[in-house]
Amino acid sequence: MKIFYWILCLLPVFSFSDRPFFYDEDRVRYELVQTNGGKSYNWLFLPGGPGSDSSYLQSLIDLLELPGNVWLVDLPGSGTNVQEETDYNRWFEIFPRVIARFSQPILVGHSFGGMFPLLFPELEQRLKGFVILHAAPSLWTEEAVSYAKQFNYPSFDDAIAALSADPNQQTFEAAIDVCMPYYFPPKSLEAGRKLFKDAVFQYRPALWWLQKATEMQFTAAWVPEHVPTLIVGGKYDCMCPYTLFQNDARFNRDNVTHLLIKNGGHCSWIDNPKAVQRVFAKFIKGLSKKTSK
To answer: In the CATH hierarchy, which fold is given to the domain comprising 2-292?
Structure first.
């Protein structure tokens, strides 16, 4: 019943669709996507970018049978959760409060959504489980360039130069479009384009994170010690190469399961939905066993 009490304590409820949105005092937006009986888990889906609207993760959620409550989470200034002025550095302060609001939270983070939580060691005591999809445990830029060379994809230098010279929403979207082959293998390229095109993607938080991660020489400050953790990567994901986790000995632990999807790109549930369904089902089964002990 805690979840319903928590909802009543939020700021006013908005209904932009047939599903309600809830905002907390930090202007984080939560969308309750599903409520399934049997378990009191709260699945929190945090999108990539950062800056992308969490709605693109609906295509993943639709594949899965998740016990408990399933939420899409958008930090302030991300996607369609646009605020007039957003200091993205406040996300460091806000994010732990997001997790603390829920009982038995299971975090599912894609790309940035899987990187950012690794900066918060306190999550070891708060998370029931952690799923990391197509992310990185450390600064990814150099490895991404090196890893992509094997595929001989077209250069995106001109688009990146245009973005650097005049960063705005238009040059950002043009750069993302040119980079699509680096996200998705040929067979799912058009489906990937559509997935990204349908989701609002704000450029400011994306550029903020790239600069912040570079300045701080991003690396995981937290490696889950006991929290059941699943790490999924794709062979054709050249933006967040799986080799970064594969070669990071810190994540070679009994509580951490790794899966490389050999025909997968940056959103492997498009390329191999059955493999993603199987690994989630196995992960859920492991959570149930851990709870029953």
So the answer is: Rossmann fold (3.40.50)
